[in-house]
Specification:
The chain is mostly helical and 237 residues long. The chain has one domain. It has helices at 2-6, 8-25, 27-30, 35-52, 54-60, 67-71, 80-102, 106-129, 131-136, 140-162, 174-194, 204-231.
Length: 237
C-alpha cells in the first residue's frame, strides 16, 4: 500500500496514457466522426497529467539542476496553478465543446453554449479576484461550477437519447458509453469535494481513503474510455 501512495502520480499518468494511446491507435476509426473530438480531449488530459507531475519529479530529484531551490519561494513549487486552469476550466470547456458537437437538439446546444460562456467568464473573474488562492490552493468553487457544466452535458445527452429513435443503436455509440462513465465518475468523486472543508494534512487515514477512491475511480474511468473506443462503432457526424 505504501508503494502505491508513493507512486500515485505515476499510476495516474499511466491510466491517462492508456486511454490516450488507445485513442491514438484507433483515430482512423473515428476521424470522420465527432468521436475524434473526444480523442483530442484524451490527449489533452494526458498532457495535463504529464506536465502536472513536474512537482513530484522535482521533489524526488532535489539536487537536479537545483530546480527546487529556484522554485522554493514561488507558487510554482506546487502545481495548483496548473490544475486550476487546465482541469477546472479548460478541460470543462473542451468537454462542453464535444457535447455541443454531439447534441442535435438546438435548444440543448444553445443552453449548453450559453452556460459554458457564463462559466468561462465567471471562472476568469473568480481567478482574478482570488489570485493568491489560485496559486496556492485547489479552487473548489470552480470544481463545483465546472461539474454543473459537465453534468448538464450528460443530462442533455440522455434526455435527447430518450426522445429520439437513436436509443436502439445507443449501445454501439461511443457517446453513450462516455456519458455513462462520466456520470458514474461524477457521482463517485463529487462527495469528496464537499469533505474538503474537513481536510487535515495530519489525518493520514482520510488522505489514504481520498486518494484510494480517486485512483480507483480514475482507473475505471480511463479503462472504460479505452474499452468504449475499442467496442463502439463510429457514428455519422
Amino acid at each position: 500500500m505504501q508503494f502505491f501512495f508513493y507512486h500515485y502520480s505515476l499510476f495516474s499518468l499511466l491510466c491517462s496514457f492508456i486511454a490516450a494511446l488507445t485513442g491514438f491507435l484507433l483515430f482512423d476509426k473515428f476521424k470522420n466522426t465527432n468521436g475524434r473530438y473526444f480523442i483530442y480531449y484524451l490527449f489533452f488530459v494526458f498532457i495535463i497529467e504529464l506536465i502536472g507531475g513536474y512537482t513530484v519529479f522535482i521533489d524526488r530529484n532535489r539536487e537536479f539542476l537545483g530546480l527546487r531551490d529556484c522554485l522554493l519561494n514561488t507558487p510554482f513549487l506546487n502545481n495548483f496553478w496548473w490544475y486550476n486552469i487546465t482541469w477546472k476550466i479548460v478541460a470543462v470547456i473542451l468537454l462542453s465543446r464535444f457535447y455541443q458537437k454531439v447534441l442535435e437538439n438546438e435548444s440543448f446546444k444553445r443552453i449548453l453554449k450559453v452556460s459554458t460562456i457564463l462559466f468561462t467568464i465567471f471562472a476568469f473573474f473568480y481567478v482574478g479576484f482570488n489570485w493568491d488562492i489560485y496559486l496556492n490552493k485547489s479552487l473548489i468553487v470552480l470544481k463545483l461550477t465546472g461539474s454543473i457544466i459537465v453534468l448538464q452535458c450528460v443530462v442533455f445527452y440522455f434526455l435527447e437519447l430518450l426522445n429520439s429513435e437513436k436509443n436502439i443503436a445507443c449501445f454501439s455509440s461511443l457517446e453513450f458509453y462516455v456519458s455513462a462513465v462520466i456520470l458514474i465518475w461524477w457521482l463517485t468523486t463529487m462527495p469528496l469535494d464537499f469533505y474538503n472543508v474537513y481536510f487535515d494534512a495530519n489525518d493520514k487515514s482520510y488522505i489514504k481513503l481520498r486518494y484510494g477512491i480517486l485512483f480507483i475511480a480514475n482507473l475505471l474511468m480511463y479503462l472504460c474510455f479505452s474499452l468504449s473506443l475499442i467496442y463502439s462503432k463510429p457514428q455519422n457526424k
